Amino acid sequence: MRLDRMQGWVKKAEMAAKTGADGLAIIGLVLLLVQGFAITGDALSRWLLRAPIHGLEDLNGLLIAVTLTCFMPLLMARRGNITIRLLGQSLGPSFALWFDAFGQIMLTGFVFVVTWHYGLYALDLGVQYSPIVEIPRQPSAFVATGLLGITLIVQIISCLASIGQAIHPEKAQP
C-alpha cells in the first residue's frame, strides 16, 4: 500500500512537472521570438540605415542560455531525449522498461553534473560584463542555473516514474 501511495504522488508530481514545463517552454518561445525579431530588426537596420542596433549582440549572448534552458524541463517531462529501444524490445517488455529506467537514472546523473558545473561557472563569472554595453553576465547565468535546477527536478520525477513503471509493468502507460 505504501508503494501505491508513492506512485500516486509521483503521478501527481509528473503531471505538475509537465504543466510547469509547458509554461516555461512558452516563456522560452516568447524569448526566442523576441530575439528573432530583434535580430531581423538589426539586419534590416544594418542594411537600410547602415547602423546596427547597439548592444544587441551582448544581449543575445546573455539571453541565449536562458532561452535554451527554458525548453529543457519540457524535454525531460516528455522524456523526449534520444533512446535506443532495439535491445530492450528484443529482450521483452519487462527488460525494455528496466533499460528505460536505467537510461533515466543515467540522464538524471548527467543533468545533475551539468547543473552543478553551470552553477560553478555562474559563480566564477563574478563581476564580468558583456564587451560592448557592459551588461553584467552573472545574473543571466544564475537564471540559467535556476532553470537547469528546475530541469533536474523534472528529470528526477521522470526517473522515479520510469522506475515505478519498471517495478509495476502492469501499470505502465503505453
Q: Which characteristics define this entry?
A:
about 170 residues; transport; transmembrane helix; membrane; about 0% strand; mainly alpha; single chain; cell inner membrane
Protein described:
Helices cover 80% and strands 0% of the residues. It is an all-alpha fold. It has one domain (2-171). Helix 1 packs antiparallel against helix 2, helix 1 runs antiparallel to helix 5 and helix 4 (93-125) runs antiparallel to helix 5. The longest helix has 48 residues, at 2-49. The two termini are 24 Å apart. The model has no long low-confidence stretch (mean pLDDT 90).
What's the order of the H and E elements?
HHHHH
Binned strand content: under 5%
Structural class: mainly alpha
The radius of gyration computed from the alpha-carbon positions, rounded to a whole number of angstroms, is 21 Å
Q: How would you characterize the largest beta sheet?
A: none
InterPro entries: DctQ (IPR055348)
Subunit structure: The complex comprises the extracytoplasmic solute receptor protein and the two transmembrane proteins.
GO cellular component, one term: plasma membrane
Family: Belongs to the TRAP transporter small permease family.
